[in-house]
Amino acid sequence: MMWFWLRWAGAAIGLSVAGVSPASARSGPWPSLFRGVVVADSPLGVRVISVDAGSQAALADLRPEDIIVRVGEAPVRSIEEFAARSHALKGRAVSTAVLVFRNGSPRELTVHLYSYPVLEAWGIAFVPEYDVRFAEPPAGLAYWRRLGRGFDEAGKPSEALQAYLNALHNVPTDAATALRASELFTQVSSAHIAHGQLAEGVMSLQQALRILERLFDSPLTTSQLEAVRDQLHATLRALRAASTKGAQVPH
């Protein structure tokens, strides 16, 4: 019954559950898309000398000896042009297309700042706080959950949501953290709808439902199943509020 309800609620707000939509904005400026990338001049574009393991560029499959010839829509013919383009994107863009030549063949990559663990586990495009790192992922989970609880107690759901998503960036398989993030997405959605920000409210509802759907693939305790049921009720109430206000939902 809950599964049917979840699928119905997703359809009612135009949600393609397999899709991806960006989470709420990260605090502070975006870091560089090309952090950890070292390049040198070459006859065609710039040659990649090294890419830090675990960097966003490495996760996007940028490799040493790739020749970068275009970033976004801008051609790259020298280190100066690459540096200028990288600087222009820093703090302003969360993703860009990169055209490289690899072993003589062209290949287009997408370098982005989104958390790969959160994106792969929950389908949420979220930029984590990369400057706060932990040697042990469970320590990061505990830190961000503790911070999230503090924001919860202070009545700041948007800040709490960011903290719980950062916790998932460290340990993406933690079902309790994912469930709390879904609850916070619904709270944020209700606040948006109450202030007439219908598009933002619907987007947050989509993200709440996306997490709930994927939670069904996780082993849940009885109390967590009850929490999912309560969350579905809350999501339905938010959906009815959006419908009452006449939200034009994108398909």
Structure description:
This protein has 251 residues and is an alpha+beta fold. It folds into two domains: 2-27 and 115-244, Tetratricopeptide repeat domain (Serine Threonine Protein Phosphatase 5, Tetratricopeptide repeat); 37-112, Pdz3 Domain (Roll), CATH 2.30.42.10. Helices cover 50% and strands 15% of the residues. The chain is built from nine helices and eight strands. The strands form two sheets. Strands 2, 3, 4, 5, 6 and 7 form a six-stranded antiparallel beta sheet that branches. α6 runs antiparallel to α7 (175-194). The two termini are 25 Å apart. Mean pLDDT is 84; it is low at 1-20.
Descriptive key words:
two-stranded parallel sheet, 8 strands, 50% helix, disordered N terminus, Pdz3 Domain, Serine Threonine Protein Phosphatase 5, Tetratricopeptide repeat, alpha+beta
Helix/sheet category: alpha+beta
Hey, roughly how much beta strand do the residues contain?
15-25%
CATH architecture designation of the largest domain: Alpha Horseshoe
Helix content: 40-55%
- Span from first to last CA? 25 Å
According to CATH, the fold-level topology of the largest domain is Serine Threonine Protein Phosphatase 5, Tetratricopeptide repeat
Mean pLDDT: 84
Principal-axis shape equals elongated
Our count of domains comes out at 2
The CATH class of the largest domain is Mainly Alpha
Low-confidence regions: 1-20
What would you give as the CATH superfamily of the largest domain?
Tetratricopeptide repeat domain
Order of helices and strands: HEEEHEEHEEHEHHHHH
The Cα radius of gyration reads: 20 Å
Largest sheet: 6 strands, antiparallel
Number of helices: 9
Total strands: the figure is 8
